[in-house]
Design goal:
The structure holds 2 protein chains of 2 kinds. Chain A is α/β, with parallel strands linked by helices. Chain A contains 15 helices and 15 strands. Chain A is globular, with a radius of gyration of 24 Å. Chain B has a single domain, classed as Sufe protein. Chain: A. In chain B, 41% of the residues lie in helices and 16% in strands. Chain B has 6 helices and 3 strands; from the N terminus they run ααβββαααα. Chain B has a 3-stranded antiparallel beta sheet with strand order 1-2-3. In chain B, α3 packs across α6 and α5 packs across α6. Chain B starts with a helix and ends in an 18-residue tail after the last helix. Classes of the chains: A alpha/beta, B alpha+beta. The interface between A and B is large, with 50 and 52 residues.
């Protein structure tokens, strides 16, 4: 206790008290509510060796989103006094929880045009993807030995596929075009008589491109192959209709749509019925697909988040599109050599994945301490490899090292966008002044013509 | 209800002992890396055609790191009087090259050749995944000296060969 006090005062003395007034206000309004695991004195925040003036502005909505206060309001009663186990059949606590879970199930189903009976609650989209990919193939293992997916899927789908490969299944990883969209003819020709599943994500987590879901669904229907989609980034952001898309399985997540973390759902078609082998065995909850006590408060939160998303999707979309435009135009107006990764036309507008020529992404992230963005997916941002998604698009390796993903959401403000533009431009200019590649480009040297020593 | 909860938490917060002062937390970057990244020393360029300047350009854009390090040498004494760098790469690469320019200044060329990547890595506390940044800095210094020696050998006529400096071990990165 004593030591931490001493340290805090030492830090206060050591740091300059020149935080911009805007940031200082942010610190006061938000930081006080949480017991934080880092030094949070009046002079700013120190964490992982980085000192910043206040909490960074958050532009990483693809990683996760804040809980909508209205969602939290709906959840709290189920923590404090309606704490029954929804599977308790003998008393009111159980009954009211069960009712709340079923009503949340209807809210989730309504957002995707499904029947509530087709929704299974899970711990999140990763679990739903695991159940879908491994569960379907394990169930039909005698006749079906082949899975089709794409190179730009989320890690959990790719890793589940790799797991199946080790068990002897065949996997086709479809390439994508430079704008990130899967080629439908290639998909069609990849289908075999023993293909047991086609898995294509609806909205990509890194580059935000929207796959042609209806067309893929039609092809799958034609060949009578089950179609699974990871819609974690699509739910509540673009209209979803399981009938139009003809999906058999769909993975959904709560925390990407301003709901709580640790909850997700799996849509499983009833007609024609798709069957899976459960990954979790136990008390047989959720129709035996996912045993384990259903977490009522989280489920209620996800239901509320879905209902809000349904009501506000249009409004959110308009606002977020305007903010995306503001961000892109703001940056492009001040610096050149800015490339958007992935299709701009077929894209969820809350995602803007940019490459800044001649500037390395990780050093840019380090400079953008006051903006919480990522260089791709949260899973790979710690590794040195350039993003496999950008590589699949055929982005030049040097440009793949330079990408930054901006994620805009319901609570992002114009001021935050303007500040992000200002800081990005400032950092890119600083790093370009430091970049030998920029210097060469300005001197008219073609960087691709140089014989680089590969390490 | 939300506000009530927040107030309670806020009231509790000061009494909760800090779960880990900054030193205990796993860090992404050491303070020295952050310092050299925020205030890089000796950024810039010399005229690479100047006979007293040696230029080392190492790395590759595809690997995410390119370092250009230049030294200016006093021909009479063989001392490095000034150094400049430009780096495309992560924070650790920028910090490594910034440190390297600081360390070579005022030193003799032979002395500088003994600067090891491990010393830079140790000084900046680079984690294992970032060790190649310090290797690149060592390579850049060696390449710059090699370039300078080459230039001098050219101007002095090919017979007056440059001092035989073991540069080849730089290829260990």
């Amino acid at each position: 206790m004593m030591a931490s006090k001493l340290l805090a005062s030492a830090l206060r003395r050591a740091s300059p008290a020149t935080a911009p007034p805007l940031l200082r206000r942010r610190l006061l309004s938000t930081a006080a509510a949480v017991a934080e695991p880092y030094e949070d004195s009046s002079s700013g925040v120190v964490m992982k060796g980085v000192r910043i003036a206040g909490r960074p502005l958050y532009l990483d909505m693809q990683a996760t989103s804040p809980v909508d206060p209205r969602v939290l309001d709906s959840m709290l009663p189920f923590y404090l006094h309606r704490y029954g186990n929804p599977h308790s059949r003998t008393h009111l606590y159980g009954w009211e929880s069960d009712q709340a879970v079923e009503s949340a199930r209807s809210q989730v189903a309504a957002l995707v045009g499904a029947s509530p009976k087709e929704i299974v609650f899970t711990s999140g989209a990763t679990e739903s993807n695991n159940i879908s990919v491994k569960g379907v193939m394990h169930f039909y293992r005698d006749k079906k030995r082949h899975v089709i997916t794409t190179q730009t899927e989320h890690k959990c789908v790719l890793d589940s596929c790799r797991h199946l490969q080790q068990e002897g299944f065949d996997i086709t990883y479809l390439p994508v075009s430079p704008d990130g969209i899967v080629d439908l003819e290639r998909l069609r020709s990849a289908i075999r008589p023993d293909t047991g599943l086609v898995s294509v994500m609806a909205v990509n987590n890194e580059i935000g491109v929207i796959q042609p879901m209806e067309e893929i669904g039609r092809i799958c229907k034609e060949f009578n192959v089950p179609f699974h989609t990871d819609a974690a980034q699509a739910l509540g952001k673009i209209p979803i209709d399981v009938e139009k898309w003809n999906v058999s399985l769909m993975s959904l997540s709560g925390h990407k749509i301003y709901g709580p973390k640790g909850i997700g759902a799996l849509y499983m078609r009833r007609r024609p019925r798709i069957r899976v082998e459960p990954q979790m065995n136990g008390g047989g909850q959720e129709r035996g697909i996912r045993s384990g006590t259903v977490p009522t408060p989280l489920v209620v939160g996800m239901g509320a988040a879905c209902e809000l998303a349904m009501k506000e999707m249009e409004y959110d979309h308009r606002r977020i599109s305007a903010l995306q435009e503001r961000l892109l135009n703001g940056i492009r107006g001040k610096i050149d050599g800015v490339v958007v990764n992935g299709s701009m036309e077929r894209r969820y507008t809350g995602n803007l994945n940019l490459s800044f020529a001649y500037v390395e992404g990780e050093s840019l992230l380090m400079g953008l301490k006051e903006v919480a963005v990522s260089s791709g997916s949260a899973c790979t941002s710690a590794s040195l490899e350039p993003s496999y998604v950008l590589r699949a698009l055929g982005v030049d390796e040097d440009m793949a090292h330079t990408s930054i993903r901006y994620g805009i959401g319901r609570f992002t403000t114009e001021e935050e966008i303007d500040r992000a533009v200002e800081l990005t431009v400032q950092q890119v200019e600083k790093l370009r002044e430091m970049s030998p590649l920029y210097e060469m480009a300005r001197a008219g040297v073609d960087i691709k013509s140089i014989q680089w020593a590969q390490h | 209800m939300l506000r009530l909860g927040a107030k309670k938490l806020a009231g509790l917060a000061p009494r909760v002992p800090a779960s880990g002062p900054a030193g205990v937390l796993p860090r992404l970057y050491h303070e020295r890396v952050v310092d050299h990244y925020d205030n890089p020393r000796n950024v810039g360029s010399f005229d690479k055609n100047d006979p007293t300047v040696g230029t080392g350009l190492v790395g590759a854009p595809a690997c995410g790191d390119v370092m250009k390090l230049q030294i200016k040498v006093d021909e009479a004494t063989g001392k490095i009087v000034d150094a400049r760098f430009k780096t495309f790469g992560c924070g650790s690469a920028i910090a490594s090259s910034s440190v390297a320019t600081e360390w070579v200044k005022g030193k003799h060329m032979e002395e500088v050749l003994s600067i090891k990547n491990t010393e830079i890595a140790k000084y900046l506390r680079l984690p294992p995944v970032k060790l190649h940044c310090s290797m690149l800095a060592e390579d850049a210094v060696k390449a710059a000296i090699k370039d300078y020696e080459g230039k001098r050998a050219m101007s002095n006529g090919s017979s007056d060969g440059a001092k035989d400096i073991p540069l080849e071990k730089a290829a260990d990165a």
